[in-house]
Every structure is written in C-alpha cells, then in structure tokens.
Write a structure and sequence with these properties.
With 150 residues, this protein is of the alpha/beta class. The protein is built from 3 helices and 8 strands, in the order βαβαββββαββ. Strand 7 and strand 8 form a beta hairpin. The two termini are 15 Å apart.
Length: 150
C-alpha cells in the first residue's frame, strides 16, 4: 500500500519548502522522482536545488544530465522512475496512473490558492477511495509541519 502525504503550504512558498522536504526524504534513504510539469520547471527545480542553501549539497539531476538511474533525486517531466524511485514528489497536482509503484507520494500544494486546495481535496478523496494510507500536514506560521489528519 502506498503512503500519500499531502503538504499544505501556507507560510512559505514552494521554493523554500520543497528543498527541506527533499532533504528529509534523502536523509531517510528514499530515492525520489521530482515531477516537473514542463522542461522549464524542471530547469527551475534543478537550479533551486543547487542554490537554495550555499552550505549544503542535495544530490540530484535531471533527465538531460544523463545517468538517470544513478540520481538519488531525479527531476523529470515523466512519471517513469528511471532512478528506481520509491518516493514521488508532486507539486502540480498530477496523479500517477500507478501510485502503488511508489512506496510514498508527497503531494505539495499552495494553500493560499482556493483552486489548488479544492483540487487537493479531490485527489485526497480519489486516493482514499483507492485504499491508500493518507496523511495531511499543514504548515504552521514558522514554516514547520503539523499533522492534521491521517
């Protein structure tokens, strides 16, 4: 059964929250597929992970970098886990056709956008009806996460 975690952004933008979530996943031993909605977004994610914190290193690469199978974090516009990812990170509301091919999915959405919130609720219902284990985490004022539902 796939565990799906919804991350409701309220205090910080995606660009600040995403690297922290990916750091935790990497430290937890996950191989991650970071789904990008376009080649432009893939390049923005790639640059973000190189520059978000000058004092840290988060190993990653994109499809155009090559050696996809060796990337601990692979940035791609395709849901094919070429790096044998067991974690899928989604930032655009995409739903995998085979969520069970991942151990965990993190679904990150902008809580300040009513359309994104409504779409996340629909994804939650769909995943729940499919029998997946769900949790919902909402950002607090300091940018930390508080579990609100499981």
């Amino acid at each position: 059964m796939t565990t799906i975690q919804f991350y409701h952004l309220t205090a910080t933008p995606l660009e600040r929250a995403l690297p922290r979530l990916l750091e935790k996943a990497y430290a937890g031993g996950f191989k991650t597929l970071l789904l990008a909605s376009s080649e432009e977004q893939a390049e923005r994610f790639n640059q973000l992970l190189w520059t978000y914190n000058p004092g840290s290193f988060l190993p990653h690469g994109s499809l155009k970098d090559g050696n996809s199978e060796q990337q601990p974090i692979l940035i791609s516009t395709s849901m094919e886990p070429l790096n044998r990812a067991n974690l899928l990170a989604v930032t655009d509301g995409s739903v995998p056709t085979q969520p069970e091919s991942f151990e965990r999915i993190i679904d990150i959405f902008d809580g300040n956008d009513p359309t994104a919130v409504e779409a996340a609720r629909k994804r939650w219902t769909g995943y729940k009806n499919s029998g997946h284990a769900l949790s919902y985490l909402r950002q607090n004022e300091s940018g930390g996460w508080e579990q609100k539902a499981a």
